[in-house]
Design brief:
Oligomer: single chain
CATH topology of the largest domain: Beta-galactosidase, Chain A, domain 5
Number of helices: 2
Distance between the termini: 60 Å
Strand content: 35-45%
CATH class of the largest domain: Mainly Beta
Structural class: mainly beta
Helix content: under 10%
Strand order of the largest sheet: 6-7-9-10-19-16-15-12-13
Largest sheet: 9 strands, antiparallel
Number of strands: 29
Amino acid sequence: MSNQDPHYRALEEDYKILDENVVYIENEYIKLGANVALGGAITYLAEHGHKNIINSWDWGRQVQLSFYSGPAPFHPEGTEMGEHWTHTPWNPIQTGDCFFNRSKVLEYKIEGNTMYVKCIPMQWALNNVPGECTFELWYTLDHKTVNVTARLNNNRSDKTQYHARGQELPAVYTNGEFYKIVSYIGDQPGTDGELTEVVSKTTERRWPSEFVLYPESWVALLDDNDYGLGVYNPHTCGAITGFAGNVSDMGWGGAKDGQTSVISMTTCVILDYNIVYTFNYSLIVGDVDEIRKTALALDSKAEHRKFSFTEDRQNFYYKGTKDKGYGNQNCLDFDFDSETALCSPHVFVSAGKCKRILLDAEIDGEVVEGNVGFSCYVDPTHQSDKRAFRTAQKLPFKLEGNCGRKIYEINISALDKPFFDFSLEFLGSGHAKVYSIELSET
């Protein structure tokens, strides 16, 4: 943009004001800054003696929370919508909206190496419309890692249960210097396999960003020396990644330059009008070997094989049906018919590591038949093929209904490929209460 553009000048004035509102925590290794005039989003993260990694060219960047639900577009009567965002659904984000109206921090405090922030976010596509919700974040420093607990507290007046959408858990934008997107995309995670440059100066993938599956649940944004920022999320192995800018923009640029790399760790989530949705993620500063080692150590502590629905959906979601809503059940409680599927979050399972799906459930209906659908790993080396990471496969199942709560065993030993997610696709009709799902190796 030209310096004579009044929108540009307004943005520069905002920068001057906002730079005065960054609060910091640090340890002997790293320093983190959150801007309390931008909802407490992270605008600064660096190892001591190194440059700031985080990009803040506009209020849609930084490291921040961004959630999605219906309707689409979300355009309440009497509101103004950004001309480039007319497709946008309900989308509160942490910093502010596309008109440069900023979110409001309600509270922040620092205790030792932890910072707490609570804010009212703004609807990104609308002019000065606060979200009917609050965000809470706890940033904690541990060595060269920022461990984050993040929470959405919804209080929407619209009580409709909209279908699941991909959430940004979180959205991370780095300066153009950290242009290279690297992770492990093979089929043997945790075995020190070769890493892949998913986005670089020589790959065809750059922009627009696209969804890719990463079996070790981490992705790194690196400079020419393979140093930068890793993002780890134990709840998913899916991420939207890309670089905005030309090849000539790769390798240089600061916090206020337009070129940027993006990682949004993502999975589909149903966001009820009253949901309290909590997740965790980590930001890891260092070279790529440090990032991978730290992420794998964190991942070894995560539970990926058993999902208990006593308190929430564990990021499972539905196609073709709804349930009773958040806070009204101690299980997944839903009607089903031939258009219904119960879908898992993204979780990588190696070939042969799952022989059975154990379903603790109560099925009302006659003998219920269906298929288990899998998104299977294929060959990640086809850099120009956006679908090369997945292919669909199905195995049949049969469940005996009307026999009370029991453990159903669905045999999937015939599947000899690793998979990233699965779904129970019903062919009959009835009602189900599902208390837990376990992926068993035996």
